[in-house]
From TrEMBL:
The keyword Ribonucleoprotein does not apply. One of its GO terms (cellular component) is cytoplasm. Keywords: Hydrolase, Metal-binding, Pyrimidine biosynthesis, Zinc. This is dihydroorotase. GO terms for molecular function: dihydroorotase activity; metal ion binding. Pathway: Pyrimidine metabolism; UMP biosynthesis via de novo pathway; (S)-dihydroorotate from bicarbonate: step 3/3. It comes from Karstenula rhodostoma CBS 690.94. Coiled coil: none annotated. Its cofactor is Zn(2+). Belongs to the metallo-dependent hydrolases superfamily. DHOase family. Class II DHOase subfamily. It is an enzyme of class 3 (hydrolase). NCBIfam families: pyrC_dimer.
Length: 358
């Protein structure tokens, strides 16, 4: 197809392999928007307050999500924590929990027995692939070790990915929200048990965007134009090694602007598939990817087929969506009567693709 001239695209409903649905009022607000974005199956992050560290917590959380929006399939995860043991992993597997999420500083030797059991149980390890930043007061310019900042935190983590894969070659590992060309290369250098997710916003943003707009600030931060373009190329050339994981992360608008620190997270759930299509079109126009590289097969793979294959799940609903160019519009603010939180979405107020369920 001539992608930039196509006015309508029909696709299987998408699988979003990385979502933050929060809890309480925020969950009531954002969970109903999953299907609005063209998605009917999601992998849910466990970083609630407190985090989801037990099987019972995880199953109860899934029940709350199902009560809000029953027409979505929720794949659940545990938060890597010192209370997670091989016994907990076995219990989680029996309960139908899919994986375990590790945040910065979580991948350490004491967890190796947990990873070994996950490998045995065929569970997924999801890695937030960044090294914690060096405290500003703790590094001297004469130090031989390079200081870690939000700009190099991801590349600094990549040797850990390599060593984990070498230690546990059959453990299914996801390097979440790849944001650099180096991260893409690291995933490709591993065996088929390792894959990466790519967000919608990292396909559009560069450093200058989030430096001036708190609603574009996330972690990992968007990097250089060259990194962004490498991500666009990975979408159409990945051959299954990379797939959609939006890392859609809602925060009340007051947390994004008006407090001492800006909360990290970009909210994209409402228009998840559309944002990616827009980014690909801009990539074609700039000559970063070829028009012929954006194919029906590739789109179906990136939006669902490749992620479901890696996670070894199916879309039991068999639903499809129709997207129409220029017929959708991003709301200025996501709000709901009776809910006190309000969320500003990515590219608020802009025109995009509409989504219609068949």
């Amino acid at each position: 197809m001539e992608f930039t001239k196509v006015q309508e695209i029909e696709l299987p409903a998408a699988f979003d392999a990385h979502v933050h649905l929060r809890d309480g009022e925020m969950s009531q607000l954002v969970t109903p928007t999953i299907r609005q974005g063209g998605v009917n199956q999601v992998y849910v992050m466990p970083n609630l307050v407190p985090p989801v560290t037990t099987v019972q917590q995880c199953l109860e959380y899934r029940d709350r999500l199902r009560a809000i929006e029953p027409n979505v399939d929720y794949l659940m995860s545990l938060y890597l924590h010192e209370s997670i043991t091989p016994e907990v992993i076995r219990e989680a597997k029996k309960a139908g929990i899919t994986g375990v999420k590790s945040y910065p500083a979580g991948v350490t030797t004491p967890f190796y027995p947990v990873f070994a059991e996950m490998e045995k149980q065929n569970m997924v390890l999801n890695l937030h692939g960044e090294v914690p930043s060096t405290p500003s007061h703790a590094h001297a310019s004469t130090s031989k070790d390079q200081a870690i900042t939000i700009l190099n935190a991801e590349p600094a983590f990549l040797p850990t990915l390599k060593s984990l894969h070498e230690k546990f070659p059959s453990l299914r590992i996801i390097l979440e929200h790849c944001s650099t060309a180096a991260a893409l290369a690291a995933v490709r250098a591993c065996g088929p048990a390792v894959a990466g997710t790519i967000t919608a916003h990292h396909l559009s943003l560069v450093i200058d965007d989030w430096a001036g707009d708190p609603f574009c600030f996330c972690k990992p931060v968007a990097k250089t134009p060259e990194d962004r373009d490498a991500l666009l190329q990975a979408v159409v050339r990945s051959e299954g090694r990379f797939f959609l994981g939006t890392d859609s992360a809602p925060h009340d608008q007051g947390k994004k602007r008006g407090e001492d620190k800006v909360a990290a997270g970009v909210f994209t759930q409402t228009n998840a598939v559309a944002y990616v299509l827009d980014a690909l079109e801009r990539g074609v126009v700039r000559g970063v990817i070829g028009e012929e590289e954006v194919s029906q097969k590739g789109l179906e793979g990136f939006f669902g087929g490749w992620g479901r294959a890696f996670y070894q799940v199916k879309d039991e609903r068999g639903e499809r969506v129709v997207l129409r160019r220029g017929k959708g519009k991003v709301v200025q603010v996501l709000e709901r009567e009776g809910v006190s939180v309000r969320v500003v979405p990515f590219r608020r107020g802009e025109t995009t693709w509409s989504v219609e369920w068949k």
